[in-house]
Amino acid sequence: MVEKSIIDDLIISKRDTFRSLVVMMCGVAGSGKTTFAQQLEEEGFIRLSIDEEIWATNGRYGIDYPTDKYEEYKEAAENKLCKLLVKLIQDKQHVVVDFSFWQRSRRTKYKRLIEENGGEWKLIYLKVHPNDLRKRLKIRSQRLDANAAFPITEEVLTSFLKGFEVPTDEGEIVIEY
User: Fold this and answer.
1) Which pLDDT belongs to residue 82?
2) Distance (Å, rounded) from C-alpha 112 to C-alpha 120?
3) In which element (H, E) is residue 82 found?
4) pLDDT tens readout for residues 105-121
5) Cβ-count burial of 163 within 10 angstroms (0-12 exposed, 13-18 middle, 19+ buried)?
6) What is the pLDDT of residues 62-88, one digit of tens each?
7) CATH (domain of 55)
């Protein structure tokens, strides 16, 4: 379970604001973003997940749709959830965005979107040692659900780690998890 004080701080922030609070999850696959986001969901946040949207709309990776369609479906899911995010912010709902936010430019884009629509954001970066990621992903590979939609091989993980832009001086809250 994620450090309770961080969850408590976010719940207090949610109660103390008259605006929508949007928690942006940030981390490499296997870092615990979904687990953290689900804990916030239990506290009343609305959770938006690209993985779950793809699963609900298109089914299972490599089973219900060809693997070469994944990027197309991911883009469609993100566009749909982005529109929903704007509506939720305007309705003053509190949201946790369960995406990886691996690029600084994407984080900046979402922060701007949130602020332009009257919300405030918190960026939560889950920092996990690569060896711990490997252990978690090995366990995750045994599941077949929306949040473990496709296998993360060593090659894929290496690619994710090389491409991940660690948030620095972006107002991030870092949790070593």
Assistant:
1) 98
2) 10
3) helix 70-90
4) 999 999 999 999 999 99
5) exposed
6) 788 898 999 999 999 999 999 999 999
7) 3.40.50.300
Total domains present in the chain:
1
As a whole number of angstroms, the distance between CA 167 and CA 35 comes to 20
Residues 6 or more apart whose CB falls under 8 angstroms from that of 25 comprise 33, 34, 36, 37, 96, 97, 98, 99, 100, 101, 124, 126
- Domain extent, residue 30, equals 4-176
**Backbone φ, ψ for residue 146 (5° rounding):** -60, -30
Where is average pLDDT lowest: 19-23, 29-33, 88-92, 110-114?
29-33
E strand residue ranges, the chain = 21-26, 46-49, 95-98, 120-127, 172-176
The token duo for 66 is 């060809």
The whole-chain average pLDDT of the chain stands at 87
The Cα-based distances of 57 to 54, 72, 126, 148 in angstroms read 5, 12, 28, 16
